[in-house]
Each structure stands twice: as C-alpha cells, then as structure tokens.
Specification:
- This protein is mostly helical and about 90 residues long.
- It has a domain of about 30 residues.
- It is built from two helices and no strands.
- The longest helix is centred in the middle third of the chain and has 30 residues.
- The radius of gyration is 29 Å and the shape is elongated.
- The mean pLDDT is about 75.
Amino acid sequence: MFENILQPTHLILVLVVAMIFFGPKKLPELGRSLGEGIRGFRDAMRQHHDDTKDENAGRLPVGSQDVVPEETTDRGSSPGEAPSHPI
C-alpha cells in the first residue's frame, strides 16, 4: 500500500500544493516552526532517556542476584563426555 509513497514526483507534487496553499512567504516560517518542534521533541526524548538511565544506574536487573557463574574448567567431565569447549 505504501511501498512507493516517497517517489520524487510525489514529493514535488506535495511541495507544489503546499506552495499554492500557504504561499511562498509563509512556507519558510512553517518549515522553521516544524524544525523547532522536531528539535524540542528530540531534546525531550534525550532528556527522558538520560533521566531513566540515571535512575537505573547501580541497580541490578531482577533475578540477577541469584545467578551463579559457571565454572569454565573441564575437571568435572566424565571420560566419555566431550569437553565443553573445543581445543
């Protein structure tokens, strides 16, 4: 449905319609305000990400306190078993 929505001819048509609808004097102002809105949104998302990172700093994930590290040696393997890592 939306495979070819960003073809150059479609974008040119949208720009022409915007130019006719808003006029050449109003278009730069609209672009500037749209850019400021996007910049504000990105800054807010970055701030939220930094805040949540600071809140979670030092915390271990749930259940990580119960994890016991595995032993990496092959001392416990039986003679018929293959070693856990290739030689």
